[in-house]
UniProtKB/TrEMBL annotation:
This is BlaI/MecI/CopY family transcriptional regulator. InterPro entries: BlaI_family (IPR005650), WH-like_DNA-bd_sf (IPR036388), WH_DNA-bd_sf (IPR036390). GO terms for biological process: negative regulation of DNA-templated transcription. Belongs to the BlaI transcriptional regulatory family. Pfam families: Penicillinase_R.
Amino acid sequence: MFSYIYHVNDIKLTNAEESVLKILWEKEKAFIKEVIEEIPGKKPAYSTVSTIMRILERKGYVSYDSFGKSHRYFPLIKREDYTKGVLSHIMNTYFGGDFRQIVSFMSSSNNISISELDEILSELKNQKKNDT
């Protein structure tokens, strides 16, 4: 069974699709062979990565420029926008849209320290100052 990650439009991505998209964000543009080179560990077949690219294209995440029979792929969505969508989905699905519940969960799970919370608070205060 695949695990899925969500985007703003609730278009699901598998972990493999997200991994390929991350490589495209890093490289900005890449041929399939270049993407395969960046995949750690055992390299998947060319046809596997090609299929993932076609799926990402169909889902609206990537497009390509043609060079004869070859395609150089590039992301259509910014990493920041995708991340916002994923975090928004997690916040709404698991924490009822309440950021305080996320902070409470993180602190009770020892995933965040008091100093890190202070840094977050300081950053939020700076953003508020800049917004006004």
